[in-house]
Amino acid sequence: MNKRVKKITALVLTFIMGVTLFASTIFAASVPTDMMYSNKVGVTEENAEVVMSYMLDNTTPQPGDVITLTITLDKLPSNGLGIRSISNRIGYDPEKIEPIGETDKWGFYVPDLVPGSVGKELGLKSNSAAVINVPNSNYYKCISFGCYNGTVYEPGVVCQFKFIVKDNATIGKADLFILAENAPYAGFDLGGNTVNDKGQIVLQRPSSWYVISNMNELTIE
Predict the structure, then answer these.
(1) Could you give the CA distance from residue 165 to residue 173 in angstroms, rounded to a whole number?
(2) Alpha-carbon torsion 177, 182, 186, 191, what sign?
């Protein structure tokens, strides 16, 4: 291989490496970090079939602070048949915040989960959640949990998680978000009961839902 060919080859390889690095950076940040407030255009808190809240007790913490995320089922379908399942994946920036928990005997990090009245009714346990890598991202992590062992007929708290702001967290915006509903393994999913044409109660996703949240306001000060 002569010097000219070697030089061209080196330039091509450098270009490919640069494109790959750029692509991997974009890929790492490709997860949506804005809250999904509803599943359809025109759905509001007032007309949604189901409403849920994801509220932080403090959106301007400092390094070392502990913040609490409370997930609440605020409104159920008007048919009176209740909600039978809730599953979530809550993404976060692992360089700024971390859920409080411990590593289990299988090596999974299990965040401390405090079930509320709704969570208990649906079979949610203190060890029902796990931290995993966000699908389609090599940066974000998420808390994944689901509960579907009962039916709830009244609004109430699903569960709570606590996060600690890392001592070395940089000042500024900290990503905390619900994965899109069409993300792998249901970033956000609900199962409600309805009646089919044979008069049988069957599990079916509510036609519309709305989310109230202040998670996108989380800023390290």
Answers:
(1) 12
(2) positive
